[in-house]
Specification:
binds fe (ii) ion; alpha/beta; 221 residues; Purple Acid Phosphatase, chain A, domain 2
């Protein structure tokens, strides 16, 4: 399910998976997949179940099947570290390439994967950021966004807490401002930063819309 909004005269769908679909451009946006995080943890002695890649790739497949985008843009930290494509099983790379077949795929550099090795294994273009129509696609929100641009970014893995009956629930969320949107992290093994944390308070203006990702529906706050 999704919430529909009009931004810069484009129809933007905020999907409960944490992705965004820009209808008129046929662009699917995802961010912070952190593919391979379980492999990186295992190398460091933390043996997490290594199934996070399957789940993240399956999630990408289901939204690609649903929206059938012409273009997929991943807004950085797509891979958890520079060596991810060298350490993960080739089956995952093949599965990603199968999903990407006949589509234009752009991976924006994140802080985790700016130095990614063996990029040629993935059928995609790698860029530090991308401007398209009146949109800018980047990993980390710019503090000053040029007047007529609307910017999509990731990086902060925003989360929001909602209290009900004295129980606090925490949800991944989109943060939407006048000229920017920060996407939630899409990957399975990704933590989050509360939008009321000191770090995010400095970055996000008070006037904003938060769209929380519930299990079965989206909540606009
Ligand atoms: Fe990240």
């Amino acid at each position: 399910m999704f919430i529909k909004k009009n931004i810069n005269n484009f129809t933007i769908l905020f999907d409960s998976s944490g992705s965004i679909y820009i209808t008129e451009l046929g662009i699917l946006l995802i961010s912070d997949l952190h593919i391979g995080k379980s492999y990186s943890c295992a190398i460091n002695g933390n043996f997490l179940p290594p199934f996070e890649i399957d789940e993240t790739i399956e999630k990408i497949k289901s939204i690609v099947d649903f929206y059938n985008p012409k273009k997929i843009i991943s807004l950085g930290d797509s891979f958890h570290e520079a060596s991810t494509l060298e350490i993960i099983d080739n089956i995952y790379i093949n599965n990603l390439n199968k999903i990407f077949k006949k589509r234009e795929v752009i991976f924006i550099d994140g802080n985790h994967d700016a130095e990614l090795k063996s990029k040629e294994k993935i059928d995609a273009i790698f860029k530090d950021s991308l401007k398209l129509d009146n949109f800018n696609f980047t990993h980390i929100k710019n503090s000053k966004i040029i007047d007529n641009l609307f910017e999509f970014s990731g990086h902060f893995h925003p989360k929001v807490s909602i209290i009900s009956n004295r129980v606090t629930y925490s949800f991944k969320c989109f943060v939407l401002g006048k000229n920017f949107c920060i996407l939630p992290s899409f990957g399975t093994y990704t933590g989050g930063l509360n939008i009321n944390s000191n770090t995010l308070k400095k970055i996000i203006p008070q006037e904003k819309t938060v769209i929380a990702l519930g299990k079965n529906h989206l909540i606009e706050i």
